[in-house]
Write a structure and sequence with these properties.
Blueprint: H1 15-24, E1 41-46, E2 53-59, E3 65-71, E4 79-84, E5 91-92, E6 100-105, E7 111-116, H2 123-140, E8 155-160, E9 167-168, E10 176-181, E11 187-192, E12 199-204, E13 211-212, E14 220-225, E15 231-236, E16 245-250, E17 257-258, E18 265-272, E19 278-285, E20 296-301, E21 303-305, E22 308-310, E23 314-316, E24 324-329, E25 335-340, E26 349-355
Antiparallel strand pairs: 1-26, 2-3, 3-4, 4-5, 6-7, 7-8, 8-9, 10-11, 11-12, 12-13, 14-15, 15-16, 16-17, 18-19, 19-20, 20-23, 21-22, 24-25, 25-26
Amino acid sequence: MSGSLIRTHSAGISAVGLMALLASGLFSTAAAEDSIESKYLSGVKQLTSDYVKAGEGYFSPDGSEIIFQAVPKGYPFYQIYKQKLSGGPAQQISTGRGRTTCSYFSPDNKHLLFASSHLDPQLDKTEQAERDQQADDAKTGRRRRYEWSFDPHMDLFQSDLDGQNMRRLTDTPGYDAEGAYSPDGKLIAFCSDRDGDPDLYIMNADGSNVRQLTNTPGYDGGPFISPDGKWVIFRSDRDKEGFLQIYAIGIDGKNEVALTSNPASVNWAPYWHPTKPYIIWTGADHTDPNARPNYDLWLMKYEMKDGIIAPGKIERVTDHPTADVLPVFSPDGKKLMWTSNRTPEHASQLFIGDFKLPE
């Protein structure tokens, strides 16, 4: 997720915040009579259930495990967990304190990357403030509009596969999160507001040689480096605050291009297909300010024109009456994992299904 955080306003939404809204069932709408999902998905099943909410999962390089964030019972913030797809208990990777998000496997399957605020010097107060707020919400029955905090104590950390030997990769004042490795494991793309505005950065996998990739007013975040290592896909609200669109930029910071540009829609959480020229993302129509937008998954086949990515045909992948967000492909492209509140209790959890590209 890399990738899961965006600023909110009256029409925008935070990806992590969306998971809170997912849990409330706020974005439920009437289902289409004839679902289109069977064209792309089969064997859909729920992966997580033992948490208040869970989401933003990513596959290990061999496709046998996943890493994800979840809110455990009794603690107010997301923590990072790793779990085998074959079953068995999940293993907590993060420290158990602070806000955490955006976990990822290194391509050599030797390390884990995630963001955490557990070094917050006022962490006791931060945790208590959130507990107090949640208790007040429960007492009053209020559904609070979720707004993800660009926590200035959020930094990127790398650990062994069991969470041990944790190493801090960023220590510049400000928010550093939403990180993901390049396919060769040599680079990490991430989001930082160290210059006062959330932009994209690239650094070596050991945290050295940091360079800025974007520098446009507005939020740029959720970066993922392409399978060939030449491009970075991301989301940005630079044109209209809160209304995210999908962008791509060369790993050298050149040839930036907008892949979606619908000012009445919110498009975010893009992810590359590992072997074919497709990207998948989350999107919803916000044309009617009085309607509840329902987030679904969307697929685009792109092409290269004169060495630059060009947008192509867009197809809708899900049309469930609940929200479907944060899609990712397995390493072989044959499975899709995403976050949804299509659960009996309408709590956001991870789902997985066999995936078929359009013919």
